[in-house]
């Protein structure tokens, strides 16, 4: 009895891998034995991450990806499969936000968030799933995993980030729709909804007076760490999640329980 973590022979594509949670997801899957394909616009940072992974004995590839550009999505996925092989696992992680009141949102602000968080995430998953479905039709025993990174902001409204909340709520519903339509092809599609996670992107904010006030409002008065998502990531990416499809799982230290 017990869960065995072994991703030898698996290919995992991680979008938004240049920093933050995406970089952590890539390292964790590589440590578990998967070949990881690192995708984002910041390819120089991806090359640095690839070197770190390879130094630890892992295997990594770099592809340039702009999720707001459909042609870039198609090219990146084709490049990933040429470089590494057929994608078994997609970690759909790219995301951006703005901080403003809804009355101040411009069309450009709206498109900036929605084009990455919802439209981009959809077409990355769609183009990856098309290839997964084609393989499953040839071999019904094939199993694939799509993990969409949503947010607790997709489950409850938070001040000053209304458009971000809307985009992540869309990812939640998108995940369920994909699970229903693609499950028959052996594709398990689930979403992780992280709470407040401290990364290099926001650690200065959490150290500020305003950030400390926010932390004191959390159930256990602490932000999470990227490694707090490791177990959930490995579960959803692995064979032990065979009966988990269409799940929206919060990892927020009890935030959405209040």
Provide a descriptive summary of the structure in words.
It contains eight helices and seven strands, in the order βαβαβαβαβαβαααβ. The two termini are 35 Å apart. 39% of the residues are buried. It has a seven-stranded parallel β-sheet, with helices on both faces. The model has no long low-confidence stretch (mean pLDDT 96). Helix 3 (70-83) packs parallel to helix 4 (107-138) and helix 4 (107-138) runs parallel beside helix 5 (162-182). It is of the alpha/beta class and 258 residues long. Strand 5, helix 5 (162-182) and strand 6 form a beta-alpha-beta unit. It has helices spanning 20-31, 43-55, 70-83, 107-138, 162-182, 203-207, 209-217, 230-237, and strands at residues 11-15, 35-40, 59-64, 89-92, 144-149, 187-194, 248-251. Helix content is 44%, strand content 15%. The longest helix is centred in the middle third of the chain and has 32 residues, at 107-138.
């Amino acid at each position: 009895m017990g869960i065995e973590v072994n991703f030898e022979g698996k290919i995992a594509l991680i979008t938004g891998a240049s920093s933050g949670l995406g970089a952590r997801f890539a390292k964790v899957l590589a440590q578990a034995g998967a070949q990881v394909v690192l995708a984002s616009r910041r390819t120089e940072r991806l090359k640095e991450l690839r070197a770190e992974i390879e130094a630890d004995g892992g295997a990594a590839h770099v592809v340039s990806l702009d999720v707001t550009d459909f042609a870039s999505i198609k090219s990146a996925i084709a490049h990933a499969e040429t470089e590494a092989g057929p994608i078994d696992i997609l970690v759909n992680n790219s995301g951006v936000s703005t901080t403003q009141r809804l009355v101040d949102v411009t069309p450009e602000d709206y498109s900036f968030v929605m084009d990455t968080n919802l439209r981009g995430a959809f077409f990355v998953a769609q183009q990856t799933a098309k290839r997964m479905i084609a393989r499953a039709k040839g071999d019904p025993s094939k199993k694939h995993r799509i993990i969409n990174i949503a947010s607790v902001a997709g489950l409850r409204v938070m001040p000053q980030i209304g458009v971000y909340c809307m985009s992540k709520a869309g990812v939640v519903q998108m995940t369920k729709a994909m699970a229903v339509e693609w499950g028959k092809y052996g594709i398990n599609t689930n979403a992780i909804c992280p709470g407040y996670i401290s990364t290099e992107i926001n650690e200065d904010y959490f150290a500020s007076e305003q950030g400390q006030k926010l932390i004191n409002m959390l159930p256990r008065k602490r932000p999470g760490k990227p490694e707090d998502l490791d177990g959930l990531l490995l579960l959803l990416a692995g064979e032990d999640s065979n009966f988990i499809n269409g799940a929206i799982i919060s990892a927020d230290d009890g935030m959405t329980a209040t």
